[in-house]
Structures are given as C-alpha cells and as structure tokens.
Amino acid sequence: MSPEPERQIHLVRHGETEWSRSGQHTGRTDIPLTDRGRRQAEAMGARLRDQRFAIVLTSPSSRAADTARLAGFPDAERTTDLMEWDYGAFEGRTTAQIRETVPGWSIWKGPWPAGETPDQVSVRVDRVIARCLAPDVTGDSLLFAHGHVLRVLAARWLRRTAPAGAQYALGTATLSVLGWEHETRVIELWNDACHMEDA
Asked: Cβ of 100: how many Cβ atoms within 10 Å?
C-alpha cells in the first residue's frame, strides 16, 4: 500500500504569449496571453469542465492566472512557488541568442547569471508537491503554471533531479497528469494538446 494517498496532480501550462511563440525565455516578465492563448485557455476549460479538484493553484503571473480564469477557475489560489524559472540575465533571450556568447548553453546545464539554479527551482516545486499531498487535501489537484517549472515539478514527482526535466517537452495550453501505479509515482498523461481546435 502506498504511504501517500493516490491523488492525481493535473498540470496546465498557460496559453500562448508573444514570447512563447518566439521562443524567448519568459521568467518574471509579465507577458499577457495572445488572442490565440485566450482561446486555448477557454478550450482547456471545456476539457476540464466535468472534473472536480480539491485544490487549484496558479502562478501569479498574468499568463497563468488568466489561463486559470478563462478555463473556469477564477478562484485559483496564487502561489509564488509556481512562478516560472527566474532566467536572470537571460530573460527575454532565445536559446540561440544565449549560445552566441555561451556555446552549448541550456537552462538545464547553466550557467544561470543572476537567475535561479535547478536546485532552487526544485525547492519551490517540492513545496507544491507536498501541499498537493497534504492530509487536508482530500482529492486531486490542478496547477496552472509555466513550461520549465512544470517540467522540474514532473521530474521531482518522479524523485529525479531537476535536470531530468529536459526530457519532458511541454507545449503551451497542454494538460499533463501525475499519478500512481500502485505505490510508484508515474506520469499518466503528458503534453496533451488534443483539445486544441485552432492549432
């Protein structure tokens, strides 16, 4: 028997923004959803309409909080633990631009000048996981957040280190589900965009 209740954690990456479309790293810059991103959020709402959640959390960034609101969860609780990775000096730049001065760079390998390390992001998402599995949470959880932080969260769910998140590609406005097979933590669904009608 699992020592932890077998509750699922549903993950939603926010809808499209101008920077997600261009591949610019969007950490703490508050970029709004595009019109397409708002339509994506509404489509996600239709996907989640018949499900019930014991707790709904969102990053306070408008692109995540607005996705939650448009998906039908206007009362989602905001938590800074779900904010996107702080890219520091690389905020707003694409990977290709960063590699012009730091060959072979990736967010998973660093460096992270003036930004967060993988271990620092892990501390935040570990708190989120603990909250979703707390004894007073008697059902499934729903989280609205960002690409890299959710990939780290998935890695930590599987009890792996943060850089393992490099293996979990995650598009905008996608649904993923973390769950269980007996006592083993598993990914039940990942990067599912089948609800999209305007891809």
From this structure: 10
Query: Is residue 14 annotated as part of the catalytic site, yes or no?
Result: yes
Catalytic residue among 10, 16, 25, 84: 84
- H helices of the chain, in order, are 18-22, 35-48, 62-70, 95-99, 118-132, 147-157
Q: Are 164 and 155 in contact (CB under 8 A)?
A: yes
E-strand ranges in 136-183 read: 141-145, 175-181
Assigned token pair, 119? 């271990």
For the question of residue 25 being annotated catalytic, the response is no
- Span 105-124, average pLDDT: 97
What is the distance in angstroms between the CA of the first residue and the CA of the last residue of the chain? 42
Q: For residue 55, what is the enclosing H or E element?
A: strand 55-58
Q: State the Cα–Cα distance between residues 30 and 82, nearest whole angstrom.
A: 14
Task: Write down the pLDDT at residue 162.
Answer: 97
The whole-number pLDDT of residue 194 equals 67
Q: How far apart are CA 144 and CA 183, in angstroms?
A: 26
Collapsing DSSP states into helix, strand and coil, what is residue 127? Answer: helix
Catalytic pick among 10, 14, 25, 148: 14
Using an 8 Å Cβ cutoff, are 172 and 19 in contact?
no
Domains in the chain, CATH or no CATH each: 9-192 (3.40.50.1240)
